[in-house]
User: Fold these one by one.
Assistant:
Number 1:
Amino acid sequence: MSQPSSPRARTTNTHHDLLRKRLIVCVGTGGVGKTTVAAALGVAAAIHQRRAAVITFDPARRLKDALGLTRLTTDPHPVPLGPDGDGLETLDAMALDTKHVFDAVVRRFAPTPEVAERILGNRLYQQLSSELGGSAEYMAMEKLHELLHHTHYRLVVVDTPPSSHARDLLAAPTRLGELLASRAVAFLKSPAALLAGSGGFARFTLGTLLKALERWSGLSLLQDLAGFVEGFESMITGFQSRAEEVGKLLRASSTAFVLVTTPEPDAVATAIAFHRELRVAGFHVAGVVANRVLAFPRRADLATDAATWPPALQRKLLANYADLQTLSRRDRHTLTHLHETTGMPLLAAVPMLSAPPQSLTALRRFATYLE
């Protein structure tokens, strides 16, 4: 039986321009191969002589396995492109470590080393830097700002978390700006106002509660809060300006969002909904990478070829091929529906593989579908 034909002929030429972007953000629901596509785009960039970095903000850290690395941290790790990698540009990979990036930001932007050490030693900071809701998204924006402004990479590829969490990531610059401009930050500069501004009974109740919390947690809440905010006050303007810059970069013409999906109807429905959100938010979606696409064409000579097979095997294999043709028609239908609904071009259709790429050699073969 012949191999299924590749669906690449149905793709557009748009993907030839994709690797010339400054920033590619891979988005999509979980389980569609988003990490593999991000890694393969980085490899394709290296093949096309573009110095690139791939960073994952997905805590699952599957990027490490896809690139054949034993470890992955927030520092750049060179990807060993192999003995046939001569002539290829460098590819680095990294993963977000919220606490590490937060500490680095404090050291870089604190007005003096003494202020930096005071912030890093603050017990409240030590809790907030790793456990504060949204801190991972804020630090992802800081890391992205660093990669785009202070490194020599010509292309940065971002592997985002699944779409539900990617929404929080993409909203982080706006949310951080709103937070830093809010009255809450000004109020926290003088935490004693929590008590001074209350009535007698309320002040007594709140004071009792704070003392109980201090005994239970071992923290001097008001003192630690005052020290935390005092140390960060000089850095707030920097946080806000960098958040605004990243927000603009994400919407710049040099940035391309790539929606990764499979032809499964549920995945396509999620991709359509997410595309609508991205467009409303002002992000430029370059197109779709469809993964695990079946393309088994109708063969007029199949029955003739099968005539030489044993009858039982003939019936089984012909039935299997008929099922694969049915699934192939479904894949074509769902991808056509995706295009007609969103207008997004199909950048690449990657055929169903026997196994996901688990080595750099396999990843380079995968990357050929994205070139």
Number 2:
Amino acid sequence: MNITSDYIYRVGVFFLAATLAPMLAFHEGAWAQDGHLGHGHDNWHKGFYDTLQRPDTKGSCCNLTDCKPTQGRVVDDHYEVKVNGAWISVPAYKIVKKSAPDMGFHVCAPVRFDGKPENLYCVVLPPET
């Protein structure tokens, strides 16, 4: 068998594509689930985010890219959600009493969120949490 440089190149390209594609797909999914600005917003804006009302001020939770899917957890006696990759405590008065169509955690926060829990717009929890 005569191995040519073209064959080696094609095998290398195939190997690179086969190993990088799953890593990039995982990275994008993880990025979106860390509550980063804009990730996943378009999927939910019409029909869900645009219906959410802030429990504290009764205004809208969402303006353009404010809301996004994220991760959440219970810590002691409160919830935490990820916003821009950081865990943020959720004040009870920021929780919307409505479940998302995907039954997951969602957060609405300012574009330049400063990390202060009181500056969250609202948080959607999965059912029965």
Number 3:
Amino acid sequence: MAGPARIFISYSRSDGQADAGRLSDTLEGRFGPERIFLDVANIDLGDNWARVIDHTLRDAVALLLVIGPEWTPTEAIAHEIRLALESGVAVIPILVRGATWNSVKEKLPSALEPIASFQALTIDHGRWRIEMQPLLDLLDRMLQDPARARVIYKPPEPVSVLQTCLNERNMRSLLVHAAELAECLDDPAILAEAQQIASRLGSDSSEERPAPSELLFSLKVARHRLMIEQIGRDVLRYAPAVRAAQFLQDAALEEEVRRTQEAFDEEVGVRSASRGELGDPAWYLPFASQSAEKARNRLRECLPGITKNEAKRKALTKLVDREVTRILNAGRIADEWEYSLLKHYSSYPDMPVWISNRSNVPAMLGWFTASKPYRVE
């Protein structure tokens, strides 16, 4: 049986042993010794160090990386960080005794470069109790909901979640990914289903084993849902309002947007011809945006969640596929909306096979970025 979720403290013995000890004492006072892992206290003589570290860290809610001025990423520390990253465990750098994050980044080997973008917490020993409080509150929330621990620490960004390849042999990593997808899609059922499938394999989520096909299929469906919803967000950022109405699959709203835009264009033409100018902006701006904002606001309200209904999801998939096909057949990208759609649709690891076989996609994306003075994210 797996024990309670723990907080794992990583440190360099030549630089941060005393700091790690004080941190451990503080955490034990708040959460109890059974919730804290510190190697000198939790690895007995004769134990297999690597096995204990691996087993404990894979089921931890966070790795607290204690960093002093002379910290260096030893082989043991690098192993702990890599394992945390692979397992989806939150890594929280703790800077003590004047250490700076910029100096730490210079010491990182290429394998640990992903942590260079992490937000570090600086703690001064003279203000220890005050500056520890936000961390204690954060860890408290993470321990109360271990399945969502990394989400609580660092809410996921949809594009980065979609660009993450599934680690199909690491159950912990897959469950963390399920939590991120559930957060992005505002659908707790995704995580609940993943946990239910994992529970059938036994309680030890640290063991490396091939993931069941049922779990992988469930996650890939959720990833596809998120991809469609992210395209919906791009509609709000880059596309005309009529696209928002199409994405909502509301024919009446789509017709209203088109009709209002046509009426506006006609009125602008009449005013321009008769006066040589548009006249008072107070008149034409609200008129032009009324139905457009109605469509955009409704789409904002539906994201996330627009893909929960399977029938709607399939209809949206067909809509997006038609748009991508149209752009590819045209052989060129016309605007920011088309660029964002093609860029995202072609960059995800589990993109449709039919688009991965189109060799002209990189050239089309490159041409558009080269021809514009700005870049669409």
